[in-house]
Specification:
Layout (H helix, E strand, L loop, with lengths): L1 H16 L2 H15 L1 H22 L5 H19 L2 H32 L15
């Protein structure tokens, strides 16, 4: 029985990888990685963010300087999100995350129902009620 569970988990993983959301995310990621302007903006954003975190942790920033740096970081993010490749990648990531979370929620509810059959769960569709 345990082996069958593992096989079904692998099957579910493969189905998720073949899903519309997963394929769209892979395509969007590839397009984003091929867009040199988007990659450059992303790298500059990450570098600035990391340097900002280091400066903040070391006490370099006054409250005013931190707000200025944060404003620049936010503007960098806004500019990056205006790029079509970045927009599509972020939207595809968001849609994939929603899809994956909905699958995980179904698993949680199903497992919760199996663990609480004596008391019932009311949410799995198996007809158990509290």
């Amino acid at each position: 029985m345990d082996m069958q569970c593992y096989e079904k988990a692998i099957e579910l993983g493969n189905m998720i990888l073949a899903s519309e959301q997963s394929l769209r995310l892979a395509d969007a990621k590839a397009a984003f990685e091929e867009d040199s302007a988007a990659q450059s903006a992303y790298e500059k954003y990450n570098e600035y963010h990391e340097n900002m975190q280091i400066a903040r942790q070391s006490g370099f920033f006054s409250s005013e300087r931190y707000q200025e740096a944060l404003g620049k970081l936010v503007q960098m993010e806004i500019d990056m999100k205006k790029m079509p490749a970045a927009q599509e990648y972020l939207k595809a990531q968001e849609d994939y995350d929603k899809f994956a979370n909905s699958v995980l929620e179904i698993l949680r509810q199903t497992i919760g129902c199996a663990e609480a059959k004596s008391g019932g769960c009311g949410g799995c569709g198996h007809g158990h009620r509290k």
